[in-house]
Structure formats: structure tokens, C-alpha cells
Automatic annotation (TrEMBL):
One of its GO terms (biological process) is transcription initiation at RNA polymerase II promoter. Residues 155-273 form the Transcription initiation factor TFIID subunit 2 Ig-like domain. It comes from the Eukaryota. Residues 100-110 have a biased composition (Low complexity). One of its GO terms (cellular component) is transcription factor TFIID complex. Residues 274-313 form the Transcription initiation factor TFIID subunit 2 TPR repeats domain. Residues 95-114 are annotated as: Disordered. It comes from Schistosoma mattheei. GO terms for molecular function: chromatin binding; RNA polymerase II general transcription initiation factor activity; transcription cis-regulatory region binding. This is Uncharacterized protein.
């Protein structure tokens, strides 16, 4: 799995693994486990992209088409069986007997089910192409680029982020750099979300991520407060008291998170001071944010870090 997981290998031009990816019966158990996890992530990303009600409409459309195709095939099979029985009865007169010897068996006419048409096959046997067609039919959106990036190719977004608060302009100067050299990474150009937890609440900024290195100025909605105490509103609406003794008195920023909703499959390294990780671990109500803080604090061994971890445990 050095190169990542491919959900749809139909467009691969070279072999990435030692086993064949065309069937789930041929891949390794570890690859299959990661395959299932990535499948769930991609469906979740699609849900965030389309919205839950729209995705439910798509799934309902898939079930309806599959049910209609199944009924059509079954009714066609029943008609063929009736026709076969009728023809067999017309060829025999009343009173005729069937002689059976020890060397012969009564002839049977098993009904062979008809071959599925291309339409029925696409409705019953779901593929990337038919799934994309149904989404286009229901929503009017073409997700070709989305599927090409996340289903037909391997890799994830690997990114490094650092920022600086500009007090005069009251903005966070964010710098992002994608890692395009390491194995298993991909070049992502699309929307990305950054959450700034400020003194006056959590604020979301969405912009388009560009290739390679880019900079972005994110305006702050809060002003720095030096002597005024107030409960701080979190992203989930809770209001909590925080110990702000170690924060920069000129900055309203408490911590920063990139892609907090996991809209893309990523590995993001954020360079921020240890006290921001401390506040994030102690007060962020998102368990993913707390895990992110725990992973980052392994590089900040100090009595303060030990105290915060002890309180969480």
C-alpha cells in the first residue's frame, strides 16, 4: 500500500500492487480493510458536497431502478416459462403415454433466464459509471472530476501550514504548502475550509486551494482584549471559561484548524504554538480536534503539556 488505495482500478495504466485489483477476492486483507475505510470516507465527502437530503434522493433512485429492473426480468422469465409449458402441452395428444426405459430419463426443459440488457445490468450491478449517471440524473451535477481524483486514483492531500497574526491589519496571514514529492500524495486544487477559534467565537473561512504553495489572508472578527473577561463561544455553541494567561495579548486568535469537517482525505501539519494546542485539547468539543492536538503535543514536552493531558485523562 505504498501508493495508496484505488477504489476503481478500471483507468489504471500501470500495476501499483503485487496483486490484481480487479476483484475483491484477489486483494490482500489489509488492502481490503483500507479499501472499505476509504470507501466510507469518499461517500461521506460526497455527502458533504451534495448535502444529505440530495444524497438520500440518489440512493432512493438507485433502489427504485434496481427494483424495477428486477421485476421486469422476473416477469420476462415467467412469460418464457408459461410459453414453454404451453408449447410442450400442444405437442402431445390426450391419452398419449410416455415410455420410460431403464436407459432413458424423462426430458426436462429447464428455462434459461434471459440475458440482462445493458440498462438492467447498469441498474442492478452498480458501477462508477452508472453511479455517476444517476447522480447527474437526480442533481444535474457531473462529479467526473471528483470520482477521477478520489475513486480512480490513489493518494491523499499532504500539507504543511503556518500562520502569523498581523496586528495592524487584524488578519491571520496563512501560508499553505502541499507535499507533491512523497509517495501516496496527490495534487489537490479545490475548496478547503479553515476554522479560526477567536475570542468572540469560531469563524469559518472557505477558499480554493491552489497547487504547490499559496498564501491567504483571513480576517479576524474579534478584537484583542486585555482586561475584559468574557465567556468564549465554541463552534458547537457552548460557552466556556478559558485561562488566557499565556496567549498573545495583542491577538484574538486562540487556535486554528484546517478542514475540520474532513471534506478531503488529508494529512495536515499545522505549525502553531503549544498554548494553542493546549487550549484546543482542553476546550474543543470535536474529538477529532482533540486527537489532532494530542498528536501535535508529542513535540511539546513541558510541565504545561503534562498538566493539560492529565486533566483530559
Amino acid at each position: 500500500m505504498r501508493y495508496g488505495i484505488v477504489l476503481d482500478p478500471s483507468k489504471l495504466t500501470s500495476k501499483l500492487t503485487y496483486f490484481d485489483l480487479s476483484s475483491s477476492h484477489l486483494i490482500s486483507p489489509d488492502y481490503l480493510s483500507a479499501y472499505k475505510k476509504k470507501s466510507h470516507l469518499v461517500i461521506r465527502m460526497l455527502e458533504l458536497r451534495l448535502g444529505q437530503p440530495v444524497l438520500l434522493q440518489v440512493l432512493n433512485k438507485l433502489l427504485v431502478l434496481a427494483r424495477l429492473s428486477t421485476k421486469s426480468i422476473l416477469s420476462s422469465t415467467d412469460r418464457n416459462q408459461s410459453l414453454s409449458v404451453g408449447l410442450d402441452g400442444c405437442g402431445r395428444n390426450e391419452g398419449d403415454s410416455v415410455s420410460v426405459t431403464s436407459n432413458t430419463q424423462p426430458q426436462q426443459n429447464p428455462t434459461v433466464p434471459p440475458c440482462m440488457s445493458d440498462e438492467h445490468r447498469a441498474n442492478i450491478l452498480l458501477s462508477t459509471t452508472s453511479f455517476r449517471r444517476i447522480i447527474s440524473m437526480v442533481t444535474g451535477q457531473d462529479i467526473r472530476n471528483f470520482l477521477n481524483q478520489w475513486a480512480c486514483h490513489a493518494g491523499h492531500v499532504r500539507m504543511f501550514a503556518k500562520f502569523h497574526f498581523n496586528r495592524k491589519r487584524n488578519v491571520v496571514e496563512l501560508e499553505l504548502k502541499q507535499d507533491l514529492q512523497s509517495r501516496g500524495t496527490l495534487n489537490y486544487t479545490g475548496p478547503i475550509t479553515v476554522m479560526l477559534q477567536e475570542l468572540d467565537g469560531a469563524f469559518i473561512h472557505t477558499f480554493k486551494l491552489e497547487e504547490g504553495r499559496m498564501s491567504r489572508d483571513l480576517p479576524c472578527h474579534s478584537k484583542s482584549r486585555k482586561h475584559r473577561k468574557k465567556k468564549i463561544s465554541l463552534a458547537n455553541g457552548d460557552e466556556v471559561d478559558m485561562d488566557l494567561a499565556r496567549i498573545d495579548p495583542e491577538s484574538p486568535l486562540l487556535w486554528l484548524r484546517i478542514d475540520p469537517d474532513l471534506a478531503i482525505i488529508h494529512d495536515i501539519h499545522v505549525d502553531q504554538p503549544d498554548f494553542m494546542w493546549h487550549l484546543m485539547l482542553a476546550h474543543d468539543r470535536d474529538c477529532l480536534g482533540q486527537l489532532e492536538a494530542v498528536n501535535a503535543l508529542k513535540d511539546f514536552a513541558s510541565p504545561e503539556t503534562r498538566h493539560v493531558l492529565s486533566n483530559i485523562i
